[in-house]
Predict the 3D structure of the following.
Amino acid sequence: MFKILRDLLRYNREFLFGTILILIIIGLIVSSFFSPYDETAIYVVIPDMPPSAEFWFGTTSRGQDVFWQIGASLRNTLLFGIIVAIISRLIALVVGLVSGYIGGRTDQIIMGINDTLGALPNIPILLLLVFVLRDQMTWSMLAVVAALLGWTHDSRLIRSVALSLRQREFTRHAVFSGMRTSQILVREHLPYVMPIVFFTTMNNLIWAIGLEVTLSILGFSDINRPTIGGMIYWANAHSAMVAGIWWWVAFPMLFVVVLFLGLFMLAMSVNEYIDPRSRLARMGA
């Protein structure tokens, strides 16, 4: 693992740049744990103060320090994406490996369900669920619902690899040795699909964060929980741009772009590293 990271940092500038951007985000998130203010408290500082030596990113019309709010918002937004990515990866792994290995009628049924769910528009469904279950839809429940909608495409990628692994000689040896299906999938097939899982996890993380930001800006999530989308929602509610309080919108947008760019560069560089030809070309071979 450390050898892979060393090679990526040494030979792949995109991975190095993406790592630096993510470290900046992590630094802001860590700083939020040392905030002198409660993240949900309002009117704890002078409202509408521009960026200065005292307030680095200025203050909001709700009397909140933008710097500390961004740290807490990035933490909650990234946590939402991580929850969605983990749950959806587990579902995609189970569906893809089982469908590809078992095959036959079971594979047709599973993939039929997979394709049906994949054809559904995610954002309209989430908006409908939030509108219907407005009082019951919590932040964590929204993450679970998003995860249940975000695994279909990646399960097909995992299934395609599992179909190939099923025909390999080591799989036949595992069957003849008496290994159970679950053991074959975990011990023999799982290591081969982990690079795909890592790459799709990064993409799914980007999708989930974008989804959370979109829903929060529209007010379809817990707006009292600090998130990047929530900050922009409250800025729009107080007409921040019209009132000239540009920093209330500019800094959240800046750091969410940094987060997106960092994750995207990490995903692309790892995907390139998985390809042996691209990796050798990078290393000058």
Remarks:
- The chain is about 75% helix and 0% strand.
- The chain has a mean pLDDT of 83.
